[in-house]
Design goal:
With 1331 residues, this protein is mainly α.
Length: 1331
């Protein structure tokens, strides 16, 4: 019902008069406001700066006339800044219009002055040239850059706008022609200068005077003719240029040849003859990419402009011959097939349309449809009579209007229609505009034939290029009023089909450009037709546009459909709820595809039934079978959101169809996957609506629950390429469980085992499968399906099965006997235990997280107690029977309790086993260990307090071991996956144990308490310190994501109120975990104040705080281990941050203790930590190699200089460890790193220095050349760095340095053996043999 805004007709008329007066005032003031650009100017924020820059540029040019050099440093910054500012407005160049004249005028003045001065200098004799007429190099350079600036403006704003501002006086013709010929055509001239001068000439030549009277009036007639011929020859030469000069030459040549002068008409004939020879020549390159191809491109561009600007009377006699040439050239370059150069085909089509317009007399067809007056005021004043609007103007033909249709027009239209099929968009777009322009000059009958030919392009047999070209042509015809309203009955269905055009080709599809063009057609319809004309089609067009706007895969199509819808809402005013929809589906909201599918679509559906039903059908029948998996998934979610809006329709119509498609063995994988995910989302949404609670839903429930058995029976989720089907099957099982649908534990119906035709039992492999299925119940099929998918090697597929396993066990094992549950669990436990030492990693990867996701009633005892009440009136005999029943019940309950405890123990033990590093390296699988660790984390949520108290300690120990997983394979540090999972699990188990201990201590009754056998708490100070040590070690490692994880975990423990899910968690941490850190609490909070680190992944923020914990003995070794591995990493920035932080902290500690012996406090403890880390990880290359690199850095920084022997044995012990590490090793990297560490040990006194020299000389004589070279380099570096320590004997220092630097240590041992012996003698070291 229409909304009434006025109380009576008088009020309505008064309001109308007020609107008319307002519009009249606007119309009167329009001309006065047209030139006022104050508002526009405010958008160019750099306008003052631009004005200042161009003033400086003009001043530079003036000063450059006196200075020959020295201005380059000033020119470049100004030019660069202007370039940056102008390019900023590339997308909105019209904002520059208020300033464009002020910008161009000084630049053109410089170009004009430079032109005149150069020509004067060229004309004057050399002996008469003075400093005032000579052009300085600096002046010439600024002038050339001025041309570049003018070209930049032409590129940003467009050359047509810039050309208008060029000076075009009569006196400019001859100098500019000479300047082009003598200066710009030289090889050293910039192409931008030629481009600008050619455009300049094209404007000058528009003067309405005869060129023969203007050019060189004092010269002879021959010189006049030669100047014009030379200019034409120059332009024709530039037509073969590979750059923008070709376009400017075509512009100039077209302006020159279309002048009305008789001489120009003669030259046009000559030019056309030359063009014909070039276009038909076979010597030039026909691909459009060589020199000949560029020349043809320039010629065609010139001819197109000539036939655009020239007089029809002067060109019509030449059009037929030129059309024959184009017809011969176009097939050579592929024609509509798309071969050859794209630009060449586009120009052929463009020239063809211009030729067609030349053949036809310019007329304004009276038969075309006109929406109304172009003046808004006139439309307001003139009432539109409904009968007049309804009458089709196209049916009226003016009998006095004559048309002269030549025979060549058929070829023109054929070429244009072929161009609509071209493979490139620019060719199709040019052909579409040509169709519109040519049809505008045709009689209604022929124009109708053209429309019919265009509509034939929109057929199932045509390609996507044809559909796109046809849509563009229809839009052009509609915009020009040439698509009469009687054709809309045929056009609208085709456009609606084009709005969803999508043809799959392999793993992708084509059709985006077609849908975009269809939106353009709809936009054109909104502007072209009156609302009364479009009214019958609103119910078809509006839903189609909304479907494309919210459900199209490409963002540009969604936005294009939204723009078309908005245009129709504004101009037609008949689209239901148009304003509300525009506010929902605007340009920015539709940029997010997920938001469009899940939220915007349902919001629109709530507004009107007109949009609701088409959107549901489109999702169910189009998007669920889309080629893109993500689109199918989104469509399923969107369809689930629509269930509350159309519950019965989706449940009774769509859901049965999807079930049939899902189990049809003849359907392709895409259709089956979309059907399965659609069923999954629909049944969950129906369950939320309590749809399945009714008695009459049994058949529907049975059909849904039978999908999985049907898939299994027909083996539809097995085989290659069915990973997505397995995921969808898992999702369906999960959805069935979440929807609480009953699964009948029945077998396959017997009718399926009988041949429907003969009535006899079926034979063959399928019959064997059916008989096997008959022996299995549906629930067994479900379990076997999950088992099969759990073992899939693809992680995403296996993860989907884990989610299904969790939901299925929680729903369908509720109330099952303990023996049934035990048998079910033991199957998985036995499989993992048996295969934990084999290479069947896929099964372990799937089964371990499945066991971690079991429901709580699998592993927790919830005994309700056994009733012991007795009736005093019972007889003795009945009392004995009750006692026996009571005893039996207690025995069964005890057995169940023991069985449940055994289940929880078996699950815990097998997960701990799989979380540990495998002893058999061939069976090592980090993914299995990670999954087992994550499963242990899930048990923290599943176990009750009793299980937590029983199994908590061993799980915590297992997780601490998992945090030490540093396995490496060809993928890199794969152990980091396990460490990352271990950190999350340790934090969760810390919280869980704290809660369990809290509730245990809070219990009032001694009978209800479940204390540990020894009464000791699970979390001890020792376990807490180990957890913190792991955190700090990982916080110092080289991987950013691990540091981020460790940092957040540390922050959650120290300051549990930050980012915690509840205040109760914070209270548990503070009450039970913080006291366990009493010995190191102050050091931790001092090192890491609250919110001190904004990003834990930034090493420069984290490492300086971490190294301060080297002072805490219980953390020193782990912190040092982490920092050392970071120093030894390949990332330079992290290595530098770690080494700088460590060296700075060591120096700070030494200074705090005086920096001189005796040192007995923290500094010695830190040095001892170095030794202990080295000793405990001997022959562990992951630790020792970066640790020796760390030693080199700290020793060369002289951090341990106070620990000199004989007062301290640290240097001696370190040397012993280095020697032990490299003994009998052939690892070149380790040996080179050891040589670097030995070079640092030379800073210590005897006997460490002598022993280090012996070991270093042993490496200097090593059999590996690279090791010898590294040892010589380190010895040379140590001698230069620590020259003041007197490492080498002073009398031999020069000889030693000379030998170390000149000897090729990577050559053969025989060639350097003598040098080695000389060095040994100089250092008084026994000659070692080659190691």
């Amino acid at each position: 019902m229409e909304l009434e805004l006025y109380e009576d007709a008088q009020q309505k008329e008064a309001h109308r008069e007020e609107v008319l007066q307002l519009l009249s005032a606007v119309a009167d003031n329009y001309d006065a406001q047209d030139d006022d650009c104050e508002a526009w100017a405010s958008f160019v924020v750099e306008a003052p700066e631009l004005g200042s820059l161009f003033q400086q540029w003009s001043a530079l040019y003036e000063t450059s006339q006196e200075q020959s050099e020295g201005q380059e440093d000033v020119i470049k910054p100004i030019y660069k800044r202007i370039d940056i500012i102008l390019k900023k407005y590339q997308e909105k160049p019209q904002l520059l219009d208020p300033h464009i004249r002020d910008i161009v005028s000084p630049l053109v003045a410089i170009a004009r002055h430079h032109r005149d001065k150069v020509l004067a200098a060229l004309a004057a004799p050399a002996v008469l040239t003075t400093t005032t007429t000579a052009v300085t190099p600096s002046e010439h350079k600024i002038a050339q850059r001025t041309f570049k600036l003018i070209y930049l403006l032409a590129k940003v704003r467009g050359h047509k706008i810039i050309m208008r501002l060029f000076p075009h006086e009569v006196s400019d013709i001859q100098p500019t022609i000479l300047y082009l010929d003598q200066v710009c055509s030289s090889p050293d001239a910039l192409w931008q200068a030629r481009y600008v001068v050619l455009l300049w000439l094209s404007v000058i030549l528009l003067i309405p005077f005869s060129l023969s009277l203007i050019i060189a009036t004092n010269s002879s007639r021959d010189s006049q003719r030669s100047m014009l011929d030379k200019m034409i020859d120059t332009c024709e030469a530039y037509l073969g240029d590979t750059g923008k000069t070709r376009e400017a030459a075509a512009e100039l040549l077209s302006r020159l040849l279309t002048r009305p002068d008789i001489e120009m008409q003669q030259r046009l004939t000559v030019h056309l003859q030359w063009a014909r020879l070039v276009l038909l020549s076979t010597d030039s390159d026909n691909s459009g990419e060589g020199d000949g191809g560029f020349l043809k491109t320039g010629i065609l561009a010139t001819l197109a402009l000539v036939f655009k600007r020239g007089q029809r009377e002067a060109l019509i006699d030449k059009a037929a011959a030129l059309l024959a040439i184009v017809t011969r050239v176009l097939p050579t370059h592929g024609g509509g097939g798309g071969g050859g150069s794209i630009v060449l085909r586009k120009l052929c089509v463009k020239l063809t349309q211009r030729l067609g317009l030349t053949f036809l007399r310019p007329v304004v067809p009276k038969w075309r449809y006109q929406k109304g007056n172009r003046s808004l005021l006139s439309n307001m004043e003139t009432a539109v009579i409904a009968g007049q609007v309804a009458a089709d103007v196209g049916q009226q033909q003016d009998t006095n209007q004559e048309y002269d249709i030549p025979a060549e027009l058929e070829d023109v239209i054929e070429i244009l229609l072929t161009g609509l099929r071209d493979k490139d968009t620019i060719v199709r777009w040019s052909a579409a505009k040509g169709i519109g322009r040519v049809a505008e000059r045709l009689p209604v009958e022929l124009a109708g034939d053209v429309v019919q030919s265009v509509l034939e392009l929109l057929s199932e047999t045509e390609t996507d290029s044809s559909w796109h070209g046809g849509c563009l042509a229809l839009a052009e015809l509609a915009r020009r009023g040439l698509l009469l309203s009687l054709n809309l009955d045929r056009v609208i269905p085709l456009i609606i089909q084009a709005l969803t055009y999508d043809v799959r080709k392999g793993v992708h599809s084509v059709g985006t450009h077609v849908r975009d063009a269809a939106c353009y057609v709809c936009w054109a319809f909104g502007r072209a037709y009156a609302p009364e004309i479009m009214a019958p089609y609103v119910t078809q067009l509006a839903p189609a546009l909304i479907v494309t706007a919210v459900f199209d895969r490409e963002v540009n199509c969604r936005r294009a459909a939204s723009a078309a819808f908005q245009e129709n809402v504004g101009r037609q005013g008949q689209f239901p709820n148009g304003i509300d929809i525009i506010q929902l589906a605007d340009y920015f909201a539709l940029s997010n595809r997920v938001e469009s599918y899940t939220n915007i679509s349902t919001a629109i559906a709530l507004l009107s039934y007109l949009y609701k039903q088409p959107m549901i059908d489109h999702l169910a029948y189009v998007k669920l079978i889309h080629w893109d998996t993500s689109i199918r998934t989104l469509a399923a979610k969107a369809l689930g959101n629509f269930v509350p809006l159309r519950t019965d329709y989706i449940a009774e119509v769509i859901l049965p169809k999807l079930v049939a498609l899902a189990v049809d063995p003849h359907e392709e994988i895409i259709t089956r996957h979309g059907s399965l995910v659609g069923i999954s989302e629909i049944i969950v949404a129906l369950a939320h609506q309590n749809y399945f609670t009714s008695q009459n839903r049994t058949i529907l429930v049975e059909s849904v629950t039978s999908v999985i058995p049907e898939l299994d029976k027909n083996r539809l989720y097995k085989g290659r390429g069915t990973e997505k089907i397995r995921e969808a099957a898992s999702q369906l099982i999960e959805s069935i469980a979440r929807s609480h649908l009953p699964i009948a534990n029945t077998a396959v119906p017997p009718t399926q085992l009988v041949n429907a035709t003969t009535g006899r039992p079926r034979g063959g492999l399928q019959a064997m499968r059916d008989r096997r299925n008959q022996a299995r119940g549906y629930r067994q099929v479900y379990v076997e399906t999950m088992d099969e998918i759990l073992k899939h090697p693809n992680e995403s597929v296996s993860a989907s099965a884990v989610s299904a396993f969790k939901a299925y066990t929680a729903e369908y094992f509720e109330g099952a006997s303990v023996s049934t549950i035990a048998a079910f669990v033991n199957k998985y436990v036995a499989a993992i235990t048996t295969l934990s030492g084999t290479t069947n990693v896929a099964l372990r990867r799937g089964y371990t997280p499945a066991l971690g996701s079991v429901p709580g009633f699998f592993v927790n005892n919830h005994n309700r107690g056994i009733s012991t009440d007795s009736n005093p009136h019972d007889t003795t005999e009945s009392k004995k029977e009750k006692e026996q029943e009571q005893e039996k019940a207690e025995t069964e309950a005890l057995a169940d309790t023991s069985a449940v405890a055994a289940i929880s123990s078996s699950i815990t033990d097998v997960l701990i086993l799989n979380a540990a590093i495998e002893t058999d390296k061939s069976a090592a699988d980090p993914e299995s260990r990670r999954n087992a660790t994550q499963a242990l984390e899930q048990l923290a949520d599943t176990f009750d307090d009793n299980n937590v108290l029983v199994h908590g300690r061993k799980i915590y120990e297992a997780l601490l071991k998992a945090s030490d997983d540093y396995s490496i394979d060809n993928r890199g540090d794969v152990g980091s996956w396990v460490r990352n999972a271990a950190l999350a699990a340790l934090y969760k188990w810390t919280l869980r144990i704290c809660f369990a201990q809290h509730r245990q201590q809070s219990q009032q009754s001694q009978q209800q308490q479940q204390a540990l056998p020894d009464g000791a708490p699970i979390l001890t100070s020792e376990l807490a310190q180990r957890f913190m040590s792991r955190l700090l070690r990982i916080l110092g490692e080289k991987l950013d994501r691990l540091r981020q994880k460790a940092g957040h975990t540390l922050e959650s423990i120290l300051y549990p109120t930050a980012g915690q899910p509840s205040g109760e968690d914070a209270a548990m941490i503070k009450q039970y975990f913080h006291p366990l850190l009493a010995g190191s609490w102050d050091a931790l909070v001092t090192a890491f104040p609250k919110n001190a680190v904004a990003n834990w992944a930034v090493s420069s923020d984290t490492f300086p705080r971490l190294v301060t914990l080297l002072r805490v003995g219980i953390y020193a070794e782990d912190v040092l281990t982490g920092i050392a591995t970071a120093i030894g990493g390949v990332t330079r920035s992290i290595s530098d941050d770690a080494s700088n932080s460590l060296i700075s902290e060591l120096r700070t500690v030494a200074m705090e203790e005086g920096g001189k012996p005796p040192l007995t406090g923290t500094f010695v403890a830190i040095s001892r930590a170095f030794s202990m880390v080295f000793k405990n990880n001997l022959h562990n290359d992951r630790i020792t190699v970066p640790l020796m690199k760390t030693l080199q850095l700290v020793l060369y920084a002289q951090c341990f200089m106070p620990l000199q022997p004989p007062d301290y044995n640290w240097s001696k012990n370190t040397l012993i460890l280095v020697r032990a590490e490299i003994r009998q090793t052939n690892d070149v990297v380790k040996l080179r790193t050891a040589a670097a560490a030995l070079g640092g040990l030379l800073t210590f006194n005897e006997p460490t220095r002598h022993d280090a020299l012996e070991l270093l000389f042993a490496l200097l004589g090593h059999r590996f050349p690279k090791v010898r070279s590294a040892a010589a380099e380190q010895l040379y570096t140590a001698l230069l760095t620590f020259e003041h320590l007197g490492i080498a004997p002073s009398q031999h220092t020069a000889v030693i340095v000379d030998i170390l630097t000149t000897t090729p240590w990577e050559t053969t041992w025989a060639a350097i053996k003598n040098k080695h012996e000389i060095l040994c003698t100089a250092f008084d070291i026994s000659t070692g043999v080659k190691k």
